[in-house]
Amino acid sequence: MDAIPPTSAATRSPAAAKPALTSDFNTFLRMLTTQMQNQDPLNPIESADYAVQLATFSGVEQQVKANTLLSQMSAQFNLLGMAQLSGWVGQEAQSSAPVHFDRTPVTLTLPSVPGADRAVLVIRDAAGNLVAREDVPPAGGPYQWLGADPSGSPLPQGLYDLTLEGEQDGTVIATAPVSHYARIEEARRSDGNLMLILRGGVQVPADRITALRMP
């Protein structure tokens, strides 16, 4: 006689593969039957109450199924996103994330502020402290930031948050982020979000990247 092969996960009986929802529904039916058998004959439960209980359980069951399906779809989309982002590693991404300054000039892209007669680049360190303010062209465009303090000395190496203030007659009329390019060193998923790790350890969501270029 031929030997019977051991049962694998793919050859298990359908009963062993029943989802938890099916088991829960059977348990609900048993509880409902027990409730009917043990009801007070002088004060029986209305049939409408049974219908409400059944409808409530069915609604919860459908919601659980929908949530499970959405979770599976989200996981598939995230995996697809990771596969696409893996090709970004090594390229340079443009974003308004903090600038990693290592005492070499950084090319910024300044936004234009309509109606402004003066534009000021505001520089804050990683702790949020104001370290410098410098006048820049109000028309916007590429700008070479040297990373100097008010005395002209180079700022310490580290991360800096840059924003642009547009002024008109000495009054700030608009504040806008400043973008720059930085090399992408890693792509990862964090708390369900696709994140890119830029040079210097700067983390930025993938949907905040506005442009890509080869270094």
From TrEMBL:
Gene name of this polypeptide: flgD
Keywords: Bacterial flagellum biogenesis, Cell projection, Cilium, Flagellum
Keyword 4Fe-4S attached: no
The keyword tRNA processing is annotated on this UniProt entry: no
Protein name: Basal-body rod modification protein FlgD
Entry superkingdom: Bacteria
Residue span, FlgD/Vpr Ig-like domain: 104-169
Described function: Required for flagellar hook formation. May act as a scaffolding protein.
InterPro entries listed in its UniProt record: FlgD, FlgD/Vpr_Ig-like
Family: Belongs to the FlgD family.
Pfam families membership: FlgD, FlgD_ig
